[in-house]
Specification:
There is one protein chain. Helices cover 64% and strands 10% of the residues. By secondary structure, the protein is α/β, with parallel strands linked by helices. The chain has three domains: 230 residues, ABC transporter type 1, transmembrane domain (ABC transporter transmembrane region fold); 141 residues, 3-Layer(aba) Sandwich (Rossmann fold), CATH 3.40.50.300; 67 residues, no CATH class. The strands form three sheets. The protein has a six-stranded mixed β-sheet. β11 and β12 form a beta hairpin. It is elongated. The two termini are 70 Å apart. The structure holds adenosine-5'-triphosphate. The site of adenosine-5'-triphosphate has 11 residues, from α10. Adenosine-5'-triphosphate (ATP) binds next to α10.
């Protein structure tokens, strides 16, 4: 909760204003029954019209003050709640964006979305309530008790009785409903999870005609949420009538006891009516206080869920003495690198050592799951090495600022990722102020210009969320063009040519060599054709290096490579490589 409280600090002056307004509201409300009692006792009973007018006018002014104070308190508390929620949402977004892959895996995406939306909204609603009631209810409650006791001591037991009844009812509601609030939020997580997963995998669901199964799964989660919601709402809808009953019964009790006191000339009629209003004010204050006891734990549940995210420090940070990698040459060196995913028992990569030089292409090949993508993801520090070190121009990348390290890298992920917008907006993701000529050049090298030209709107062609309106190969080419626009020193291609036909693959590699040939290229590939011209090929097998060399060297010396090659190349091609 401490994480959350700091978001309210900037608003302390406004909170103080709210407290002042609420104090004014409570004082004015407490004064009203006294004036009413005076009007009855000294105006109506004594038929003194000028007293009635005078006191009535004062009452009107006091009532006006109540309206002003209530309005101000409402306005300010809504402002504080909305602004603090905005700050919390921004902090959540910033924190989640700074998370490394390891932290992201700890929270599900669905849960992060619920926490940033529903939980923040919950906290916002509770903030308004708490800001308004936490001050107002105690001031009004204590003030009304003092005033009621001053008006009539013999009647005071009726209030005690009513308060006791209210506390009992609220305690019952508290114990019945509270545990459900926690479950409610986690059920919402589940709904978001199923919804998100199904929507992104809709085509697979359809292809396997699993709609009924998915509907059942969703219905199950939905039904659970409905059950809890109904339970909570039932309990809450029972609460209001029960409380109204207590209030009405206590009014009757006051009239009954009060009339006997009036009869015995121990109480004035006006005082009895004023007492009744004080009793209502006391009961309402207790009602507010107990309502807060219900609201606060609910807000605490949401606050804790938000705090749990804010509390997590990203595991990959800039070292305090980090240096900037300004205009690096681009030499990447792995020195005895081993890597295990967080919480994984076994290492994914063991004792990897190699150097990737500028102006050279270093290719990584190996069977599925051999650790190729893991290896490449260590270079931009998506994960940190577990043992050993990776050097950029001789400096450990953990000592280079993440920004300048990533600035030096053009990363093209295995799954081309585009954002909603246009082709141009996606390319400019790499360089905000890229000119049309620069974009054309990059698209030309990435072999994307042909299909962009065919689009009715060219670079301004809309791209749907996730790039669903372009083909897999086009997505890969646009991802490559995006990386090219950045003009980095190091290119990391994680199986980025897999969706390209052989001709485009070859043309792209040729253009890359011609235009940006002095950069460092690290290419992960499944296809031998893509990498057989590479200056250095690293063969990975179960996270270990099975061989390093050129195509022809590896054909002779590395059995794993030979196996991959012979499954993909013809005898003639193998012969050319020097095997036959
Ligand atoms: N985020 C992760 N957490 C835990 N283990 C992972 C994670 N990502 C990958 N792995 C495991 O690490 C191993 C290597 O995976 P990696 O994706 O690097 O292989 P790859 O050689 O790129 O495979 P492919 O060619 O199929 O893409 C696999 O056994 C995989 O299950």
């Amino acid at each position: 909760m401490k994480e959350m409280l700091k978001y309210y600090k900037p608003y302390i002056p406004i909170i103080l204003l709210i407290i002042a307004a609420l104090f004014g509201q409570a004082m004015c409300e407490l004064a009203l029954p006294g004036y009413m009692s005076d009007i009855i006792n000294f105006g109506i009973i004594k038929s003194d019209m000028s007293y009635i007018y005078k006191t009535g006018a004062i009452m009107l002014l006091v009532a006006l003050a109540v309206v002003i104070c209530t309005g101000l308190a409402g306005l300010f508390s809504a402002r504080v709640a909305a602004k603090s929620s905005r700050d919390i949402r921004s902090a959540l977004f910033r924190r989640v964006t700074a998370f490394s892959a390891a932290e992201l895996e700890r929270f599900s995406t669905a849960s992060l979305i619920t926490r940033s939306t529903n939980d923040v909204q919950m906290v916002q609603q509770s903030t308004v309530m708490i800001l308004r009631l936490a001050c107002f209810a105690p001031i009004m409650g204590i003030g009304a008790v003092i005033k009621a006791l001053r008006t009539s001591v013999p009647l005071s037991w009726t209030i005690a009785l009513a308060v006791l009844a209210i506390l009992l009812i609220m305690a019952l509601a508290f114990f019945l409903v509270m545990p459900k609030f926690k479950v409610l939020q986690s059920k919402l997580d589940r709904i978001n999870l199923i919804m998100g997963e199904r929507l992104s995998g809709l085509l697979v669901v359809r292809a396997f005609t699993m709609e009924p199964y998915e509907e059942d799964r969703f219905d199950e989660a939905n039904l659970e949420l409905k059950k809890i919601n109904i339970f909570v709402n039932r309990a809450m809808s029972f609460l209001m009538p029960a409380l109204m009953l207590v209030m009405n019964l206590s009014s009757i009790l006051i009239v009954w006891v009060g009339s006997k006191l009036i009869d015995a000339q121990n109480l004035l009629v006006g005082d009895m009516l004023a007492f009744m209003q004080y009793a209502m004010q006391i009961i309402i204050s207790f009602l507010f206080i107990t309502m807060m006891f219900i609201m606060i734990p609910r807000a605490v549940v949401s606050g804790q869920r938000i705090g749990a995210v804010l509390k997590v420090e990203p595991s990959i940070n800039d070292a305090p003495d980090c240096v900037e990698a300004d205009s690096p040459a681009g030499k990447i060196e792995f020195r005895d690198v081993s890597f295990a995913y967080p919480d994984a028992e076994e290492k994914t990569l063991s004792h990897i050592s190699f150097t990737a030089n500028p102006g050279e292409t270093t290719a990584i090949i190996g069977g599925t799951g051999s650790g190729k993508s893991s290896l490449i993801s260590l270079i931009p520090r998506f994960y940190d090495v577990t043992e050993g070190e990776i050097l950029l121009d001789g400096t450990d990348i953990r000592r280079i600022s993440q920004k300048s390290l990533r600035q030096a890298i053009g990363y093209v992920p295995q799954k081309g990722m585009l954002f909603s917008g246009t082709i141009a907006s996606n390319l400019r993701y790499a360089k905000e102020d890229a000119s049309s000529a620069e974009m054309r050049d990059a698209a030309e090298i990435a072999q994307a210009m042909d299909f962009i030209r065919e689009k009715p709107e060219g670079f301004e062609e809309p791209v749907a969320q996730g790039g669903t309106t372009v083909s897999g190969g086009q997505k890969q080419r646009l991802s490559i063009a995006r990386a090219l626009l950045k003009n980095p020193k190091i290119y990391l291609f994680d199986d980025s040519f897999s969706a390209l036909d052989f001709k485009t693959d070859a043309a792209l590699r040729k253009a890359l060599k011609e235009k940006v040939g002095n950069s460092t290229f690290i290419i992960v590939a499944q296809r031998i054709n893509t990498i057989m011209d590479a200056d250095k090929i690293i063969v990975l097998d179960e996270g270990q290096i099975a061989g390093i060399g050129t195509h022809s060297q590896l054909l002779k010396e590395c059995s794993v490579y030979r196996e991959i090659a012979s499954s993909q190349l013809s005898e003639e091609e193998l012969g050319k490589g020097g095997l036959a």
